[in-house]
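Forwarding the complex inputs:
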Amino acid sequence: MPKYMTKQRKALLDYLSCHADEKLSAKKIEADLSSEGISISAVYRNISDLEKEGKIRRVNQSGSREVFYQYTDGAHCKECLHLSCEKCGKTYHMNSEVTKMLIENLAKSDEFAIDKASTVLYGVCRECREK
Amino acid sequence: MPKYMTKQRKALLDYLSCHADEKLSAKKIEADLSSEGISISAVYRNISDLEKEGKIRRVNQSGSREVFYQYTDGAHCKECLHLSCEKCGKTYHMNSEVTKMLIENLAKSDEFAIDKASTVLYGVCRECREK
DNA sequence: CTAGTTGCAAAGAGTTTGCATGGCG
DNA sequence: CGCCATGCAAACTCTTTGCAACTAG
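Prediction (whole assembly, four chains):
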Protein backbone atom coordinates (compact mmCIF):
# COMPACT_ATOMS: atom_id res chain seq x y z
CA MET A 1 0.00 0.00 0.00
CA PRO A 2 2.71 2.58 0.84
CA LYS A 3 4.50 3.88 -2.23
CA TYR A 4 7.42 5.93 -0.96
CA MET A 5 10.04 4.91 1.55
CA THR A 6 10.26 8.04 3.62
CA LYS A 7 12.80 8.44 6.36
CA GLN A 8 10.01 8.17 8.91
CA ARG A 9 8.78 4.89 7.52
CA LYS A 10 12.31 3.55 7.37
CA ALA A 11 12.98 4.50 10.97
CA LEU A 12 9.76 2.85 12.04
CA LEU A 13 10.48 -0.38 10.18
CA ASP A 14 14.01 -0.51 11.56
CA TYR A 15 12.71 0.07 15.03
CA LEU A 16 10.01 -2.56 14.74
CA SER A 17 12.24 -5.27 13.38
CA CYS A 18 14.63 -4.67 16.28
CA HIS A 19 11.75 -5.09 18.70
CA ALA A 20 9.97 -8.08 17.22
CA ASP A 21 7.61 -9.80 19.63
CA GLU A 22 7.70 -6.90 22.00
CA LYS A 23 4.49 -5.18 22.89
CA LEU A 24 4.71 -1.58 21.82
CA SER A 25 2.21 1.20 22.26
CA ALA A 26 1.87 3.99 19.73
CA LYS A 27 3.08 6.36 22.41
CA LYS A 28 6.20 4.32 23.14
CA ILE A 29 7.04 4.04 19.48
CA GLU A 30 6.75 7.78 19.04
CA ALA A 31 8.87 8.42 22.13
CA ASP A 32 11.58 5.97 21.12
CA LEU A 33 11.72 7.44 17.65
CA SER A 34 11.61 11.04 18.76
CA SER A 35 15.29 11.44 17.94
CA GLU A 36 14.55 10.34 14.39
CA GLY A 37 11.71 12.79 14.17
CA ILE A 38 8.35 11.21 13.52
CA SER A 39 4.99 12.64 14.44
CA ILE A 40 2.34 10.67 16.27
CA SER A 41 0.07 10.88 13.24
CA ALA A 42 2.70 9.33 11.01
CA VAL A 43 3.13 6.57 13.58
CA TYR A 44 -0.59 5.85 13.51
CA ARG A 45 -0.83 6.02 9.74
CA ASN A 46 2.08 3.69 9.21
CA ILE A 47 0.98 1.29 11.90
CA SER A 48 -2.39 1.13 10.27
CA ASP A 49 -0.85 0.27 6.89
CA LEU A 50 1.39 -2.37 8.44
CA GLU A 51 -1.58 -3.90 10.14
CA LYS A 52 -3.45 -4.19 6.87
CA GLU A 53 -0.40 -5.78 5.31
CA GLY A 54 -0.32 -8.27 8.17
CA LYS A 55 3.15 -7.30 9.33
CA ILE A 56 1.94 -6.04 12.63
CA ARG A 57 -0.67 -7.34 15.00
CA ARG A 58 -2.69 -5.55 17.58
CA VAL A 59 -2.44 -7.12 21.03
CA ASN A 60 -4.17 -6.18 24.24
CA GLN A 61 -2.86 -6.62 27.69
CA SER A 62 -5.67 -8.34 29.48
CA GLY A 63 -7.07 -6.31 32.32
CA SER A 64 -5.90 -3.06 30.84
CA ARG A 65 -7.38 -0.97 28.12
CA GLU A 66 -4.03 -0.19 26.59
CA VAL A 67 -3.42 -1.20 23.00
CA PHE A 68 -0.11 -2.60 21.88
CA TYR A 69 1.38 -3.52 18.56
CA GLN A 70 3.72 -6.30 17.73
CA TYR A 71 5.85 -6.86 14.68
CA THR A 72 5.15 -10.36 13.44
CA ASP A 73 6.70 -10.59 10.06
CA GLY A 74 8.95 -13.57 10.74
CA ALA A 75 8.44 -17.02 9.27
CA HIS A 76 8.27 -18.54 12.72
CA CYS A 77 5.38 -16.30 13.65
CA LYS A 78 3.22 -17.65 10.87
CA GLU A 79 3.47 -21.24 12.03
CA CYS A 80 2.63 -21.15 15.67
CA LEU A 81 0.36 -19.57 18.18
CA HIS A 82 1.56 -17.00 20.64
CA LEU A 83 1.55 -17.01 24.40
CA SER A 84 1.56 -13.79 26.33
CA CYS A 85 2.65 -13.70 29.96
CA GLU A 86 0.32 -11.61 32.05
CA LYS A 87 3.02 -10.87 34.61
CA CYS A 88 6.06 -9.91 32.59
CA GLY A 89 4.36 -9.18 29.27
CA LYS A 90 6.79 -11.33 27.30
CA THR A 91 5.63 -13.17 24.22
CA TYR A 92 6.40 -16.84 23.75
CA HIS A 93 6.05 -18.98 20.69
CA MET A 94 3.97 -22.01 21.30
CA ASN A 95 5.58 -25.33 20.52
CA SER A 96 4.68 -26.14 16.94
CA GLU A 97 3.67 -29.72 17.74
CA VAL A 98 1.24 -28.49 20.32
CA THR A 99 -0.01 -25.82 17.99
CA LYS A 100 -0.63 -28.33 15.25
CA MET A 101 -2.43 -30.69 17.55
CA LEU A 102 -4.61 -27.97 18.97
CA ILE A 103 -5.60 -26.77 15.56
CA GLU A 104 -6.45 -30.27 14.43
CA ASN A 105 -8.47 -31.01 17.52
CA LEU A 106 -10.42 -27.83 17.22
CA ALA A 107 -11.15 -28.52 13.60
CA LYS A 108 -12.41 -31.96 14.49
CA SER A 109 -14.33 -31.69 17.71
CA ASP A 110 -15.46 -28.10 17.66
CA GLU A 111 -15.41 -27.56 13.91
CA PHE A 112 -13.68 -24.28 14.41
CA ALA A 113 -10.87 -22.96 12.23
CA ILE A 114 -8.37 -21.06 14.33
CA ASP A 115 -6.91 -17.85 13.02
CA LYS A 116 -3.29 -17.99 14.12
CA ALA A 117 -2.65 -14.39 13.23
CA SER A 118 -5.14 -12.94 15.62
CA THR A 119 -5.13 -15.40 18.49
CA VAL A 120 -3.03 -14.88 21.58
CA LEU A 121 -3.21 -17.10 24.64
CA TYR A 122 -2.78 -15.47 28.00
CA GLY A 123 -1.30 -16.97 31.12
CA VAL A 124 1.81 -17.04 33.25
CA CYS A 125 5.20 -18.20 32.08
CA ARG A 126 7.49 -20.49 34.03
CA GLU A 127 9.88 -17.77 35.06
CA CYS A 128 7.14 -15.68 36.58
CA ARG A 129 5.54 -18.63 38.30
CA GLU A 130 8.79 -19.46 40.04
CA LYS A 131 9.05 -16.03 41.58
CA MET B 1 -17.28 -4.29 46.35
CA PRO B 2 -20.70 -2.80 45.66
CA LYS B 3 -22.75 -2.26 48.79
CA TYR B 4 -26.21 -1.29 47.64
CA MET B 5 -28.42 -3.03 45.10
CA THR B 6 -29.71 -0.07 43.18
CA LYS B 7 -32.29 -0.44 40.48
CA GLN B 8 -29.63 0.37 37.88
CA ARG B 9 -27.34 -2.37 39.14
CA LYS B 10 -30.22 -4.81 39.19
CA ALA B 11 -31.24 -3.93 35.65
CA LEU B 12 -27.67 -4.35 34.49
CA LEU B 13 -27.23 -7.73 36.14
CA ASP B 14 -30.54 -8.97 34.76
CA TYR B 15 -29.59 -7.78 31.34
CA LEU B 16 -26.16 -9.37 31.47
CA SER B 17 -27.35 -12.75 32.65
CA CYS B 18 -29.84 -12.83 29.79
CA HIS B 19 -27.05 -12.09 27.36
CA ALA B 20 -24.35 -14.38 28.64
CA ASP B 21 -21.63 -15.08 26.10
CA GLU B 22 -22.72 -12.23 23.92
CA LYS B 23 -20.30 -9.49 23.14
CA LEU B 24 -21.67 -6.24 24.46
CA SER B 25 -20.25 -2.77 24.17
CA ALA B 26 -20.79 -0.17 26.85
CA LYS B 27 -22.77 1.80 24.33
CA LYS B 28 -25.06 -1.12 23.49
CA ILE B 29 -25.66 -1.87 27.13
CA GLU B 30 -26.65 1.70 27.77
CA ALA B 31 -28.92 1.76 24.74
CA ASP B 32 -30.62 -1.51 25.60
CA LEU B 33 -31.17 -0.37 29.16
CA SER B 34 -32.30 3.11 28.26
CA SER B 35 -35.88 2.21 29.11
CA GLU B 36 -34.75 1.20 32.59
CA GLY B 37 -32.85 4.44 32.97
CA ILE B 38 -29.15 4.06 33.50
CA SER B 39 -26.49 6.59 32.66
CA ILE B 40 -23.38 5.74 30.70
CA SER B 41 -21.25 6.53 33.74
CA ALA B 42 -23.18 4.07 35.87
CA VAL B 43 -22.69 1.47 33.16
CA TYR B 44 -18.96 2.05 33.20
CA ARG B 45 -18.70 2.07 36.96
CA ASN B 46 -20.67 -1.14 37.34
CA ILE B 47 -18.86 -2.86 34.51
CA SER B 48 -15.61 -1.98 36.13
CA ASP B 49 -16.71 -3.50 39.44
CA LEU B 50 -17.97 -6.64 37.75
CA GLU B 51 -14.69 -7.00 35.93
CA LYS B 52 -12.77 -6.81 39.19
CA GLU B 53 -15.07 -9.43 40.65
CA GLY B 54 -14.38 -11.64 37.65
CA LYS B 55 -17.99 -11.83 36.55
CA ILE B 56 -17.36 -10.05 33.31
CA ARG B 57 -14.55 -10.27 30.85
CA ARG B 58 -13.28 -7.75 28.39
CA VAL B 59 -13.09 -9.13 24.86
CA ASN B 60 -11.83 -7.48 21.72
CA GLN B 61 -12.98 -8.07 18.25
CA SER B 62 -9.78 -8.69 16.40
CA GLY B 63 -9.06 -6.12 13.77
CA SER B 64 -11.26 -3.53 15.39
CA ARG B 65 -10.54 -1.21 18.22
CA GLU B 66 -13.95 -1.71 19.76
CA VAL B 67 -14.15 -3.07 23.28
CA PHE B 68 -16.77 -5.58 24.31
CA TYR B 69 -17.82 -7.14 27.57
CA GLN B 70 -19.09 -10.59 28.22
CA TYR B 71 -20.83 -11.99 31.24
CA THR B 72 -19.00 -15.14 32.23
CA ASP B 73 -20.30 -16.07 35.59
CA GLY B 74 -21.56 -19.52 34.68
CA ALA B 75 -19.99 -22.77 35.86
CA HIS B 76 -19.42 -23.89 32.31
CA CYS B 77 -17.41 -20.80 31.55
CA LYS B 78 -14.89 -21.57 34.24
CA GLU B 79 -14.00 -24.95 32.80
CA CYS B 80 -13.31 -24.34 29.18
CA LEU B 81 -11.73 -21.94 26.79
CA HIS B 82 -13.75 -19.75 24.50
CA LEU B 83 -13.78 -19.48 20.76
CA SER B 84 -14.89 -16.33 19.05
CA CYS B 85 -15.98 -16.35 15.44
CA GLU B 86 -14.50 -13.46 13.51
CA LYS B 87 -17.32 -13.47 10.99
CA CYS B 88 -20.48 -13.71 13.04
CA GLY B 89 -19.08 -12.70 16.42
CA LYS B 90 -20.61 -15.65 18.21
CA THR B 91 -18.89 -17.22 21.17
CA TYR B 92 -18.41 -20.96 21.37
CA HIS B 93 -17.32 -23.08 24.29
CA MET B 94 -14.37 -25.21 23.47
CA ASN B 95 -14.81 -28.92 24.01
CA SER B 96 -13.64 -29.63 27.53
CA GLU B 97 -11.52 -32.61 26.51
CA VAL B 98 -9.66 -30.48 24.04
CA THR B 99 -9.34 -27.71 26.57
CA LYS B 100 -7.89 -30.06 29.13
CA MET B 101 -5.44 -31.53 26.71
CA LEU B 102 -4.30 -28.17 25.50
CA ILE B 103 -3.71 -26.94 29.01
CA GLU B 104 -1.74 -30.02 29.90
CA ASN B 105 0.36 -29.84 26.79
CA LEU B 106 1.16 -26.23 27.32
CA ALA B 107 2.11 -26.88 30.90
CA LYS B 108 4.44 -29.65 29.79
CA SER B 109 6.11 -28.52 26.62
CA ASP B 110 6.00 -24.77 26.92
CA GLU B 111 5.84 -24.53 30.70
CA PHE B 112 3.10 -22.00 30.40
CA ALA B 113 0.04 -21.83 32.64
CA ILE B 114 -2.97 -20.71 30.64
CA ASP B 115 -5.39 -18.26 32.15
CA LYS B 116 -8.76 -19.52 31.00
CA ALA B 117 -10.54 -16.40 32.13
CA SER B 118 -8.69 -14.05 29.85
CA THR B 119 -7.94 -16.18 26.83
CA VAL B 120 -10.13 -16.17 23.77
CA LEU B 121 -9.27 -17.99 20.56
CA TYR B 122 -10.25 -16.35 17.30
CA GLY B 123 -11.18 -18.04 14.09
CA VAL B 124 -14.13 -18.98 11.94
CA CYS B 125 -16.94 -21.28 12.98
CA ARG B 126 -18.36 -24.06 10.85
CA GLU B 127 -21.53 -22.22 9.98
CA CYS B 128 -19.66 -19.22 8.64
CA ARG B 129 -17.19 -21.35 6.73
CA GLU B 130 -20.01 -23.07 4.90
CA LYS B 131 -21.40 -19.85 3.60
C1' DC C 1 7.30 17.61 -11.64
C1' DT C 2 3.59 15.03 -9.25
C1' DA C 3 1.55 12.28 -6.19
C1' DG C 4 2.28 10.17 -1.74
C1' DT C 5 3.57 11.50 3.07
C1' DT C 6 4.33 14.38 6.75
C1' DG C 7 3.36 17.60 10.73
C1' DC C 8 0.28 20.32 12.98
C1' DA C 9 -3.78 21.37 15.00
C1' DA C 10 -8.48 20.53 15.34
C1' DA C 11 -12.05 17.19 15.62
C1' DG C 12 -13.85 12.71 17.35
C1' DA C 13 -14.71 8.78 20.05
C1' DG C 14 -14.60 6.39 24.26
C1' DT C 15 -13.86 6.50 29.08
C1' DT C 16 -13.11 8.62 33.59
C1' DT C 17 -13.97 11.87 37.29
C1' DG C 18 -15.85 15.70 40.52
C1' DC C 19 -19.68 17.09 42.64
C1' DA C 20 -24.31 17.81 44.08
C1' DT C 21 -28.50 15.07 44.40
C1' DG C 22 -31.05 11.04 45.36
C1' DG C 23 -32.01 6.45 47.29
C1' DC C 24 -30.72 1.92 49.66
C1' DG C 25 -30.51 -0.19 53.92
C1' DC D 1 -30.29 9.09 58.85
C1' DG D 2 -25.64 8.15 56.71
C1' DC D 3 -23.19 6.62 53.18
C1' DC D 4 -23.04 4.75 48.63
C1' DA D 5 -24.35 5.20 43.88
C1' DT D 6 -26.21 7.97 40.28
C1' DG D 7 -26.52 11.61 36.69
C1' DC D 8 -24.58 15.29 34.48
C1' DA D 9 -21.05 17.71 32.52
C1' DA D 10 -16.41 18.61 32.24
C1' DA D 11 -11.96 16.62 31.72
C1' DC D 12 -8.94 13.25 29.67
C1' DT D 13 -6.69 10.13 26.64
C1' DC D 14 -6.16 8.00 22.48
C1' DT D 15 -6.88 8.08 17.65
C1' DT D 16 -8.35 10.07 13.30
C1' DT D 17 -8.67 13.66 9.86
C1' DG D 18 -8.13 18.07 6.92
C1' DC D 19 -4.92 20.77 4.95
C1' DA D 20 -0.84 23.09 3.51
C1' DA D 21 4.04 22.15 3.03
C1' DC D 22 7.51 18.87 1.87
C1' DT D 23 9.89 15.16 -0.54
C1' DA D 24 10.79 10.54 -2.78
C1' DG D 25 11.05 8.78 -7.19
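Chain B has two domains: 1-73, 75-131.
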